């Protein structure tokens, strides 16, 4: 388990860095994404629920859900036994004075015993809260063709 | 030219709709994206600069720029004569009480006289301002392979 979750000792200091593309935001986003994919690729996807809040929103393909319970249920019910995400690109921007961070990830995803990875794109909006971050927005799309 | 830019009569009413996945956000995002790609695919890309502000940030592949002038210069200097974006998926979420909107687009892009489109993903963070929206964050990545 990295320092991002659930230790919560990490301090964002986001708004001070708004004027530039601070490496800090990329560091937070990378740490978050590493934890997120390790958890969703692991044996207990329900562990992801700690990063959502009652007003958090998730779009997974054409399905949209809101709130910790609905998001957790959706993640657990995904009809895949094995997942393996590999990040190809990760870009992060500060998204305002609040210290929030917008993250765009593109990558490849191996599903169950398929030999060929599926490309995907995922966008997260991370919001600071008490020295750590939660996920306000999570949009996932497979890239077909 | 649609109603999104530059007429500015459109009223967001974003925060009232925060509790649900209001169609409104998708409508704004669709209208914005339609205008954006029509403009960047057109003969004068500099017209895009009206949607950025001094603190706006753009990542185009590995290049990061900030501010209207730098973003405009980057857009104009892209080494492509002809572009043709086709949206495959567009998802939009309200991104907080401020009425901001997070948009994730996946699509295909024909560059110059290439016969085969290139897949891409693009994330926008749209922020309400005086009855219209500006782009705070713009992250673009081609999807290779």
From TrEMBL, chains A, B:
Coiled coil: none annotated. One of its GO terms (biological process) is mRNA transport. GO terms for cellular component: cytoplasm; nuclear envelope. Keywords: Cytoplasm, Nucleus, Protein transport, Transport. Pfam families: NTF2. InterPro entries: NTF2, NTF2-like_dom_sf, NTF2_dom, Nuclear_transport_factor_2_euk. PANTHER family: NUCLEAR TRANSPORT FACTOR 2 (PTHR12612). This is NTF2-related export protein. It comes from Tuber aestivum.
């Amino acid at each position: 388990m990295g320092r991002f979750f659930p230790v919560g000792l990490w301090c964002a200091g986001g708004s001070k860095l708004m004027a530039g593309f601070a490496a800090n935001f990329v560091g937070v986003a990378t740490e978050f994404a590493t934890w997120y994919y390790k958890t969703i690729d692991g044996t207990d996807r329900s562990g992801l629920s700690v990063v959502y809040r009652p007003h958090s929103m998730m779009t997974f393909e054409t399905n949209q859900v809101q709130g910790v319970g609905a998001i957790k249920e959706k993640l657990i019910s995904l009809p895949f036994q094995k997942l393996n995400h590999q990040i190809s690109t990760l870009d992060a921007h500060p998204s305002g004075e609040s210290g929030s961070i917008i993250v765009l990830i593109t990558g490849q995803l191996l599903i169950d015993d398929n030999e060929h990875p599926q490309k995907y794109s995922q966008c997260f909006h991370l919001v600071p809260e008490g020295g750590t971050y939660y996920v306000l927005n999570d949009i996932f799309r497979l890239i077909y063709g």
